[in-house]
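Run folding on both entries below.
>entry_1
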Amino acid sequence: MNIVCLDLEGVLVPEIWIAFSKASGIPELTRTTRDEPDYNKLMNWRLNILREHKLGLNEINATIEKIDPMPGAPEFLDALREKTQVIILSDTFTQFAGPLMKKLGWPTIFCNTLVVAPDGAVTGFRMRAEKSKLVSVQALQSIGFDTIAAGDSYNDLAMIQASKAGFLFRSTEQIKKDHPELPAFEEYDELLAAIEKEL
């Protein structure tokens, strides 16, 4: 029994924080998990920037409402879900995910939660589990699934490496260079064909 585990940002939708960086005019917020392997460090750094600029969930969500899936992503996801079960494993947050899941046809997503004050200030975040993508893949394997995983960033590598088959999709040159053993694709039809071979 196979199940495909996909990253969200950079694979199916554009990076939320990069979009918000452009909307807010704060270039520091372009830093993502493609640049910083330590997610806790990255998120605490982001929260400090939000506090400095007195920005919160309302402003971020106004940007998210305008984000569309990457061209071809909904069709890729639909084609994949016709063949097998799919779960999105993301380090994004439930407060961000809703509008994006609607545009993708409501796939299942496992993600984290922000701590938000009544005025919309983001005061912290709660990870679903330590190394949540890896832990999720291991949990699925423990109940009889063979996992196939794809992602683009440092925080995807553990779930990709732990899976029966794993792929990089639209990743950075550095990550591809560091992991030549992982097949890397740029187009959805290539990724779909590679996954189908493993089903």
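>entry_2
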Amino acid sequence: MTQNASIPVGKYFSSRDGHDIHYHEVGAPAPDKPSILMLHGSGPGASGYTNFNGNFPFLGDHGYHVIVPDYLGYGLSSKPADFQYKVDAQVELMRELVAHTGARTLVIVGNSLGGWFAIHHAIHYPHEVSKLIVMAPGGLEPPENFVQQMEGLSEMFRIPLERDFSIETMRKLFNLFMFEPAGVTDQILSERLEIARQQPVEVYTTLGGTVTAPRLNEVKAPMLALWGYHDKFVPYRHAQILLDHVPDVHLITSNRAGHWFMIEEPELFNKACLDFIEQ
């Protein structure tokens, strides 16, 4: 599974159900600091490394224990076709991984699908989460309310269903993730293309979970939300849902970013995260 990997190989953890979860890890748990769990978004070929390789070393350099996993079905983790890729199941796998690393209190950083996981985790296991950082989190309202309106999201689901993984198709999709398409490099393509071709279609056809908006008032952890104004995947208007319902939330927006805030605005993102964690 690790031969000819398109991303650097980190560590592996075997879950109770025998699934191999791949992850990168920087540092070790410390009694005076939270561990940081960084949860990537969805999309063909996604992984923790491709989402956060410009971010997690920065946090590690500032003395934090950082865990950057690939969900089941993504990156270099196992990709079973007989698994229901629901939010609650993936969150439980992440909790197993966190326990394996020895981490206790968490700051969870989640992009898109990872933001959905982060909020779900904070609602159901509030004692484990000290702070939340989310970028355009999913799961805030039923997908039928907005999927057809979002060019990027519609294309993201079409490609794996039709197994249309040409370089041209993937480049077009990744251009939609970013405000400035020139930011989609050959490296981003190469890191994700081979992984995308290995992912079972069930990663997309069984994806789902409980919409979190009705329970956002239960989020006890302070939240930092970052949103690109030109997001073509999760509506910018969803930021208002967080502002209306999360008890303690700060919002940072950028008109120079789309859906990949942490890739498009890495310096702003890294500094905002560090400042928020250390408040």
